Amino acid sequence: MNIIFTRPFIDSEDLMSSILNSGFNIIHVPTLSISSANMQPINTNNYDGLIFTSANAVRFLKITNSNKNIKCFCVGNLTEKSLRLKGFNNTIAASGTVNALKNIIINSEKKFNNLAYLCGDIVSIELDKELSSEGFKVSKIINYTSSKITDLNKETLDLISKYPANIALIYSMRSAESFDDIVKKYSLLEMMTQCLVMCISKKIENFFKLKGWKKTETFNPGEELIKINQIKNG
């Protein structure tokens, strides 16, 4: 089976290695370019909790002090792992969705009065506003930006032609838009007729359905390889 992987390599090295070691072919088609928003360093002592909905927010985090005992709420295991590698030890991970993360924060035993929400310039859910409506004080800090990649080099085009994709993994709405643009730009739709588009949320799956894609499914983050093996074994 041939798998199109759309996340940047730096976010997905472990998963891509696991997929390759399981005998699948990977065609890497990154759909977003991620860069620092040059945030001003924050003092973690000014907050009683930090919120991360992406490992990218962890990558570009800047702090002015060495206190890493602050409570950190993470959208999923990859984000939590990234924080722990930076030395933060008071972390909790949700199941991979923003709604699940919001519920963890709301249902916490401790009342958090001053939270910092680290995120990108484009988000699918305004988590800060939703938490504010629940009585939390949340400061939204944009510390990275994303831009669409809509160009493919000849090597990647040749790989797609030689190894028609069975599955494409899509991790965000912005990535979904970029992937759809790439397919149209390079007239790849005919090659993609048998491709199952696996989406990280129902919202993204609905986007592809509205665009005319026939084979779509959702997956839970962290369970990509399980899902791929289930499809393989049919």
Helix content: 25-40%
**Content-based structural category:** alpha/beta
Discrete helix count: 9
Query: Roughly what is the average pLDDT, rounded to an integer?
Result: 92
CATH topology of the domain at 36-146: Rossmann fold
Strand content: 15-25%
Number of strands: 11
Overall geometry comes to elongated
Radius of gyration: 19 Å
Task: Report the CATH C-level class of the domain at 36-146.
Answer: Alpha Beta
Q: Detail the poorly predicted runs.
A: none
What is the terminal-to-terminal distance?
12 Å
Q: How are strands sequenced across the largest beta sheet?
A: 3-8-7-4-5-6
SSE order: EHEEEHEHEHEHEHEHEHEH
CATH architectural designation of the domain at 36-146? 3-Layer(aba) Sandwich
Main sheet summary: 6 strands, mixed
What structural keywords apply?
234 residues; Rossmann fold; six-stranded mixed β-sheet; 9 helices
Structural write-up:
There is one protein chain. This protein is α/β, with parallel strands linked by helices. It has a domain of 111 residues: Rossmann fold, CATH 3.40.50.10090. 35% of the residues lie in helices and 22% in strands. The relative contact order is 0.17.
Topology:
Blueprint: E1 2-5, H1 9-21, E2 25-28, E3 32-36, E4 49-52, H2 55-59, E5 72-74, H3 77-85, E6 91-93, H4 98-106, E7 115-120, H5 127-132, E8 138-148, H6 154-162, E9 167-170, H7 173-185, E10 196-199, H8 202-210, E11 216-218, H9 224-233
Parallel strand pairs: 1-2, 1-9, 4-5, 4-7, 5-6, 7-8, 9-10, 10-11
Antiparallel strand pairs: 3-8
Helix pairs in contact: 7-8
